[in-house]
Every structure is written in C-alpha cells, then in structure tokens.
Amino acid sequence: TGQNKEVSTMRSIAVLNQKGGVGKTTTAVNLAAGLARAGMRVCVIDLDPQAHASLHLGIGVDNGHDSIYEVLVGDASLADVRKQVAENLWVVPAHLDLAAAEMELAGEVGREVILYDKLAADDQEFDYLIIDCPPSLGVLTLNALAAVTEVFLPLQPHFLALHGLSKLLRTVDIVARRINNHLRLTGVILCLFESSTRLAGEVAGDVDQFFTNGAGANTAWADAKVFRTRIRRNIRLAEAPSFGQSIFEYDGSSNGAEDYANLAREVLGVPLANSEQPKLAGAA
Ligand code: ADP
Ligand code: MG
C-alpha cells in the first residue's frame, strides 16, 4: 500500500483558477478524455460542488450519496464512490452537498490533507489523476493542492487575465512550503482563445512574459510555462457538457477536439503534428 505509492509513476494534476468561467472543467474533462483515448488510465476527481465535471462525464445529478463529499466528510473510500465512465476513464463525482464541506471541515484538525490520505489508502493505480477544482481557494482547493504534484492553470486571455494571479501563485507557493513540497505549477493553458483578435495575442504575450521574467525564482512556479497548445473558443465545447459527453464523443471533428487532442499530446510529451511545430529559422 504505502510502499507502492513510492514507486508510483502517476502524474497528479489540479486544474485550478479561483475565477469561474475560465475553462477549468472543460479542460479537466477533455484533457482526461484525450489522455484516456491515448491509452492512459485516468481518474478525474470532481471537487466542485456544482458537479459540472461529473455531469460532463455523464454522471447524473441524482447520484445521491456516492460522491467525494462522503469521502471527505464521511468514511467512504475513493473506491466506494468512483465510477468508470469510458474505457480508461473513471470519475469520483461531486454533489451539491459538497458546498457544506467547507464549513463542516472548518474545525477539523488536518482538514487540508484528507484527500491526500484517502489517495494514499487507495489501491487503484492510474497514469493520471486530474482534479477539477472549485472557483475558490478554500479548504476543497487546499485538499487538491496537498494531494497533487502539478497545477495546470487555465486562463482566458482578456484584459484582466493576470488579475488575481498573484493570490493564486502565493497560495500554491505556501502549500508547497508548508504542506506538500512536491507541488509545482507546470503551466498555463490559454482557453477560450479568440485567435482572430489582437487582444488575445497581446495577452498571450503578457502571460508569457510574466512567467519568464524571473519573478518566480525560488517559488513553486519558477519553472511554469505557457502550454503551446491554445484552446480556441469553439461552440461545440460549450454544447458537449449537456449531452454528458466529452468533446471526442460529441464532435470528434471539431476544433475543440483537435485542440484537446493536441493538449493531451503536449502533456504526454509527444511531439505535436507538423502544423503545430514552430517554424525553423530561415525556413520559407
Ligand atoms: P470553469 O470550470 O473555469 O468555471 P468552464 O470550463 O465551465 O469554466 O467554462 C465556462 C463556460 O465556457 C462553460 O459554459 C463552457 O462550456 C464554456 N467553454 C469553456 N471552454 C470553451 C471554449 N474553448 N469554447 C467555447 N466555450 C467554452
Ligand atoms: Mg468548473
């Protein structure tokens, strides 16, 4: 059990931004589905009381008392509530009850490491664990940060994109120092990208600059990068959740499916298709 974890090669990722509507859930679900299609065993943990990731993965809202709430506040194990939703893809669903967890755990000693402990006690092996965080930096998000080694930060490139970022980075850094010294910000994913607008390009440049200007030296975000894959705004991505399908099931030929397949490849470290490669200097 505990010994197996030492040699685990699982990558564990929290998809985090305390702002709502930036593409967290869309990214958690479709990146997970993309990785699963590439043959990886993937488990999504839905930590948002709104349960959008669970719905997106086809789990109904009336899943009753089989959710991450029972794991965090009660005696349930992850295995008790985890459901397989596709080949190679599992979800630990959320439930509206989870909104109360923040309060219910307030007086609990060690409340930030409950999920970490449950994961340590879990005997299932996955290649990827992906946690969809709620839009806050409260105890649920702290549980995610204590339990993973990587943070992926979706950003919507508009003029306030960097606003609030310092608070998020400070939180990640504090958790890395006090609770989980393996925690790092891997990178920023530009979501809802409008390739036709000048603003999107400018903000992308600003974000790039922000993470390469050295300000993060000696922090948990020192090596953060901006993922090369940009997730374009695509209506099919907005439609898919209400059908309980990932973008690959809903419309495999959409730009959304192409972008998330590319993101999955980038995360896996597989070279992207030729059209995505940077031009060589001197090449026409
Ligand atoms: P968050 O989890 O950060 O609140 P969501 O992933 O739920 O954000 O996205 C917010 C809304 O925008 C949702 O309605 C979602 O379907 C939609 N959306 C997300 N990404 C895209 C995209 N690339 N193109 C079009 N709509 C998107
Ligand atoms: Mg969400």
From TrEMBL:
Alphabetized SUPFAM superfamilies for the sequence: P-loop containing nucleoside triphosphate hydrolases
InterPro entries: AAA_dom (IPR025669), DNA_Partitioning_ATPase (IPR050678), P-loop_NTPase (IPR027417)
Pfam families: AAA_31
Annotated AAA domain residues: 10-184
Protein name: Probable partitioning or sporulation protein ParA
Organism: Blastopirellula marina DSM 3645
